[in-house]
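Appendix B. Chain record.
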Amino acid sequence: MIVRVIKMTLKEAHVDSFKKRIPIISIEVRRVSGCMHNDIFRDKNKDNVFYSYTIWNSEEDIEKYLNSQYYKEIWNDLWDYFKIEPQAWKIDNIFDYPESL
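C-alpha cells predicted for this chain:
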C-alpha cells in the first residue's frame, strides 16, 4: 500500500467551479485499477487550498495511472485553476494495524 497526497492551491476565482467538479473526478479516480481509496480535503484556514489523499495498491498502480490518458486529460483541464503548481508526495504507512481495529 502506498499513499499519494497532492496539495492544490487554486486561484480564488476557480474555487466554486473546482468544488462542483472534483466530486465527479474523485469518483472516477476511485474506479481506476489499483486505487483503494480517494478523498479530497479542504484546508481549514485557506479556502483555496485542497488536498487529494489517495491510497494505491502499489507504486506500479500509481505510475500506470500517472501515465494514463485519463490523468493527462484531468490535469490539462484543471491546470488553469491552479494558483501555483500542485505539490505531490508519495508516502508509506509505517504501522501495521491489527485487522480488528
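Further analysis of this model is presented in Appendix C.
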